[in-house]
Amino acid sequence: RYSVVVHLIGNLFFQLVEVEKHLEDTSGKEGQSCTLSCQLSIPNVEAQWFKNGKQLEMKGRYTSEVKHKVQRLLISDLKPEDQGRYTCQYQHLKSSADLWACTQ
Question: How does DSSP classify residue 9?
Answer without folding.
Answer: -
